Amino acid sequence: MEWLSLDSIVTILGILFGGGSGAFFTWRWMKKKAKAEAESAEVDMAQKVQDTYQQMLKDKDEEVQDKNRIINELREDRDHFRQDRNDLRERLEKTEETVRELQRLVARNGRQLEAMRPFMCYDLKCKKRVRVQASECEETKKQEIEPNNEL
User: Fold this and answer.
1) Do 83 and 130 belong together in one domain?
2) Residues 83 and 22 in one domain
3) Taking the alpha carbons of 30, 32, 38, 41 in that order, is the dihedral positive or negative?
4) CA pair distance 80, 73, nearest whole angstrom
5) Same domain, 113 and 74
6) pLDDT tens digits, 96-130
7) Rounded distance, CA 130 to CA 142, Å?
């Protein structure tokens, strides 16, 4: 048992409690420090990921708001165009009614003219000329005209 002599026991105890134990405690402390730094780095990375995610959500929200604003503007434009179209349709219907009324008046005037044609004198110097005014109820008013007066 030579190797278990007092010198070797003191050397082993010196290594364990002297330099060797310090290295062991230093290694253990370094391991805890590295673990804490790794956890800190993970937390920082998670915070960066969360910040990036929040920024993406904010950007997406702004994009959605812009699209909603555009949609609302397009809806307003559509409503204005519909209102304009309806106004134009009403004006067209009124214009068509006016045209139909004018056509009726032209037809009535044409009928009155045709009814009076046998009694018309185209000679402006004729002494028998009579001014005739047709009314709505087909009654006529006659006025004597002097020969050289114009109608």
Assistant:
1) no
2) yes
3) negative
4) 11
5) yes
6) 999 999 999 999 999 988 887 777 777 777 777 66
7) 6
Q: Tokens 């179209």 label which residue?
A: 85
Rounded to the nearest 10°, the torsion over CA 40, 46, 47, 52 is 150
Q: Are 112 and 118 in contact (CB under 8 A)?
A: no
Helix (H) or strand (E) holding 102: helix 20-116
Kindly report whether the global pTM for this prediction surpasses the value 0.85.
no
Same domain, 82 and 125: no
Q: Domain of 91?
A: 7-120
The reply to whether 41 falls in a domain is yes
CA distance 18 to 145: 152
C-alpha distances in angstroms, 90 versus 15, 95, 100, 103?
108, 9, 15, 20
Rounded CA-CA distance 47/50 in Å is: 5
